[in-house]
Amino acid sequence: MKLQSYNKRGEFAFTLIELLVVIAIIAILAAILFPVFAQAREKARATACLSNTKQIGLAMMAYSQDYDEKMVRGWYGNGGFGRSRANPAPDDRYKWMDAIEPFVKNQQLFSCPNNPKGLAQRPGDGDARGRYLPAKQLGAANNNDTLDEDERYYGSYAINSAYWGEDRSRKGPANDTTLAAISSPADTIWAMDGNGSYQFAWPNQNEDPEVIRKNADISYLCNKFTDENNLQEGAIIDRHQGRTNAIYCDGHAKSVTLSFLMSADQRTRNDDGTANPNGFIRQFTPADD
Description:
- By secondary structure, this protein is an alpha+beta fold.
- It has one domain.
- It is built from three helices and 14 strands.
- It has helices at residues 16-66, 96-104, 258-261, and strands at residues 5-6, 12-13, 75-76, 84-85, 94-95, 149-150, 157-160, 189-193, 199-200, 213-215, 218-222, 235-237, 244-248, 253-256.
- The strands form five sheets. The protein has a five-stranded mixed β-sheet.
- A hairpin with a 4-residue loop joins β13 (244-248) and β14 (253-256).
- α1 crosses α2.
- The protein is globular and about 80 Å long.
């Protein structure tokens, strides 16, 4: 028996069953390919973010070379850890991104292509989330301390201000140090994917991140007494398929996992060379391990 169908003019036409089979095949292929396309887009964004961090790393190195090997600090100005503002010196406040911006000359580099994924959420942020705007563009100077200040435009990347209350040999590189003080620059993190704060910070081991926390499909590390929405102490975010991009103190950048950073062998060493499970988180301190 012939299964083909013909229209009134004798031309070949699909039967209903054949059309349903074709539709089913298309649906199956779509179900297989759409996740692949989504993963490819995520991979492309991660690659673009890594390119951003590499260029930022080069700018940070250029800054150090121009300033007698001093590393860019996390913040500048009286009370500079507070909201950035555009007042004339000495009443201005600005962050590390503003200090190296002349070496970058591309404000978009400070924004991850995966924005706003993993960024702190607050009412009124709107399209400011993850966007970088230099402090000097925040507004005209005035005598009202509450105006022309903002903390929404720090971009996507956070500098390493860890252990800021510890001995100088343990403080993260954003805490007023020099390249010469970093004994292992290729193993010491300078900046990473962040939650929209200009830094990630905790004062001492008592406030070390204890565990990798999770919110929906995002994992993060932060001061154990804060959370991923804190824009003062900040947080490290793995917004790239379970990975985060890191800039190291020799200027190179690479993708790492939070579990690697928190693993037992990434703690500072005992005198016999073994990892100390209660030691400092090794890649966040410039001390010789």
